[in-house]
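Page 42, continued from yesterday. The earlier attempt failed because a stray header line got pasted into the input along with the sequence. Redoing it now with the clean sequence only.
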Amino acid sequence: MHPDSTTKPPQTQAIADTPASSDLAADSSPAGAQPAQPARYLEILGVCASRPSKTAQTAEGQSTRQNDPKNARRLRFLLQAAARELLPDSRVALCLRHSVPGAAAVYIWLSAERNRAYYTNLITCKKFWDCPVCAARITERKRERLTEALAGGQWFTAMASVTQGHTENESLAVGLDRLTQAYRRFTSGRWFQGFKDRFHIEASVRAVEVTHGARGWHVHYHVLFVSDSLWYPSQQFEMQALGSLRWQECLAKFGGFADLQYGFNMRFEDAAKAGYVAKLGDDDQLVKEFKAWTLADEITKAAVKKGRGTNRSLNQLLYDYATEGDEEAGRLWVEAAQTLHGTKHLRPSNNFWTILDQLGPEQSDEQLAADEADQLDQLLASLSLAQWRYVARIEARADVLAVADLGDTDALWRYLYKLGVPLE
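This time it went through. Structure tokens are written below.
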């Protein structure tokens, strides 16, 4: 079905938090098909190594650098396929595979603002911890909003990495609960009010990051403090010292401990650097080359960035399960997804957006994850439900978008026919 650009179809919608129905599940794979195994995931992605290669093949067979956003998108769809296998009863099992109830077609658009193709009329799960595709979209849009709010040079920022000691056999739930309670104590009462007044802290925003390594789960916070006054070196030293001592006290209250120097570790950034953050785009840390990483990026992208040293981020655990058949990595990822359910990745102070900008109220993860066609966007193709089910069945969702990014409707349909999409 070729597009009709004169009318706007319904937008992508969310559904209730329910497992896939039997009729939808029946459309998700060919009769008698088995879940994709690691080798199949690699075949879909065009990657042969156990880690992302320096180059990968596009849908048209051309080599791309590892920081190509198209390659990053393929990787996210790969990770989503693995998440669907691990959580078959979660909403991620339906995300960007099944059409919204009542839809007659699936539409492919080209964004005028981002010059990137996307789908509408598909279910989106909007689950930050379950879905790498939705998580990337949510974090990128929050990063853009935070960068815009800090632009202009009137704000000064500092970030505290708030960590705790942990043991190899400690569950993620135990570590997360202790960190949450200790930080709640840190930010309540007269001590924290005095801390804010002393150092002219106007607002703050907190992000949670989780990794796993040889010593078990490591869960910690990144907290961005915002001030309208410059912190001089003597004040920076005092903030670090007072914060470290207070954090030690709060952790001890709940049976925890942390290194005095690194348990509450502050970094300061000047106004110009905070205001003009290097654009990261949609590139995933597993496939992008080094780029400037500022405090605004750190606070919004913490949950999807690559772990340090031998520690693996949640995306890395999922990648190792998908590409190497690492069952333990899959089990750890499921533990994290279930434990973090309901935990907000980014939690601003109540006055954060009111003080920083005039962009309107904060948007929820559900709003940020949704793809909605803008009036300036170009409708490239309209796929019947049968045609879409074929695309989803052969795991060509990312490759179709890669071709659609060219903005050439004829090239897109030629590629669809080359894939074997049924004619109608």
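Notes: The first strand starts at residue 55 and ends at 57.
Reminder to self: strip header lines before submitting.
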